[in-house]
Design brief:
The structure holds two protein chains of two kinds. Chain A is of the alpha/beta class. Chain A is built from ten helices and twelve strands. The radius of gyration of chain A is 21 Å and the shape is globular. Chain B has twelve helices and no strands. The chains are: A alpha/beta, B mainly alpha.
Amino acid sequence: MSQDIALQVKNLRVSYMTGEQEVKAVDDVSFSLYPGERLGIVGESGSGKTTLALALMKLHKPPAYIMGGEALLDGSDILALEREAMRQTRWSKLSLIPQGSMNSLNPVVKIKHQMADAIEAHERGWTRGQIAKHIGELLGRVGLPDSVADMYPHELSGGMKQRVCIALAIILEPSVIIADEPTSALDVVVQRVVMQTLNDVQEQLNAAMIIIGHDMGLMAQSADRLAVMYAGKMVEVSPISSFFSDPQHPYSKLLISSLPSPEEKRELAAIPGSQPSLLELPSGCAFHPRCPLAVERCKLEVPLLRRFSHDRRAACHLVEEPAS
Amino acid sequence: MKHSYFLRRLVMFFVVVILAATLNFIIPRLAPGDPIGAVLEELRARGASTGGDAEDEIVAAYRARFGLDQPVHIQYFRFLFNTLRFDLGHSISYYPQKVERALLRALPWTVGLLAISTLMSFAAGSFFGAMMAWPRAPGFMKRFVPMFMVLSAVPYYLLGLILVYVFAFVMRLLPLGGAYSSGTIPQLDLDFLLDVIRHGMLPALSIVLTSVGFWALGMRGVMVTVLGEDYLTLAEAKGLPDRRIFFAYAMRNALLPQVTSLAIALGTVASGSVLVEVVFNYPGIGWLLYNALRSSDYYMVQGVTFFLILTVAVSVLIVDMIYPLLDPRIER
């Protein structure tokens, strides 16, 4: 593992302020991201994945507020940046592949202009010809013909739009790419191809990538490491192979046993209950009401995300430290 | 593909025009009153007519001259044919003046006053409306909302009367009415132009003030929806400057439904002008219509209404033609 860190998030907290109440959507999340690495973040809807992604780009909108923490990119804390400095940082160092790629392109502007304005906004001093050449080259890299540059979004299929979004995300060669459910709007066949394209361009750039989603199968194929979020907290962070072979957090175990497997024929296990409301989190560990292994301590004490082996962390009182 | 779109629009245009002409033929004939009778009435009131056989003969002669003695369907086809040649007949009250000449004389005043003030109000209203919805706009922008709501609820002739009372009657800053000072001869020089502008200010102000709210509130509503679109999040993520996001991404898209309303508004400019022109004594199309209605001047009323429908149809046609340039999705 490379020693330099592409992005280091420390104790990030994001809350939605609704009236008098504070809803902690992202609660004390810390992780590091290495160049060339793909970190998958999974969790149920409402577990804070997208809020986390938007907050990292400071695109969160009121009533969401960053309550604390830092995100170090190239040694400086981007969360502390002023508006203009943040604007310059966006896309040149940190780009986003949006969740709703169907509607992520301006419907009345040609693709080439939507790509060009990202370059122009960052004053790279390129000539018009250079920009056009770069756009053509990028479209080629994501497997689209040059003619797409002159088209409008409505003339493209869903998969093509998502490819345009991928091309757009690497246009300034950022060091970090955040892909927020990059394939959730696509059908299964296109999903695989698009994901492959995304992985290829990310590898060419040696950029670090955060993939947000809830498709465990897709994660297993793409991610190097996996972080599981539950009710705004990270509950387990593990390399992908050890995560699937030996999940530690009870929630991770249940997630994996709820997946169909081609090898063994068994009844799929559903996780009992549903995710708690962030307004009324259970005491202690937020997962304890649904946890089959919960003990008295889980109701009283919030477990911290602790390292239990050299590359794995989990937030559970029952995970031994160091693991066997 | 492209040609069929324009062709369809063009056919549509002619269908509308013919339908309009037909309705236009029927409606004035449903209204009570008789044009020759109205003139006679006026003459009698002045003691100029004695009645009797001679009068009946005169009436018959006039009916023949205006074609009113013919069966209805003959009148109709003759009317349709003439209308399509833009021959709108003679005015009855101001015989032998031709209707189309009167229209063309009144047209520049109406277009000048109403089209300009509508466009001004559209531009200002759309911009204000967009700013009112923009989260990073100065805070005072939001205070305009109630003001615009009140203004758009005030009928413009009422506001016009108030403006006339305050600025023309009490303060005597601007003229009471008319398009230019009586006694001046319309000509293209600076003095006359300034005179026209002085006369146009109050009516224009009353139109702009009462309609700017409509545009602003409409724009604000669309803008709020557009601001929630995914492509705005991506635009911001791309690190685009605020100005570019506001104009090229948010306003550009929010304007599309506004432009459709503008086409209709511009079309109804002439008809909507009746009250303004009456209040301000402005010699435009509305004023012409008002006078024609009062004297049951069939041909004039027909001419003016046909002309009004024509303006709606033409402005809708123009917008239909340029809309694909504004919204590439339309041309399908």
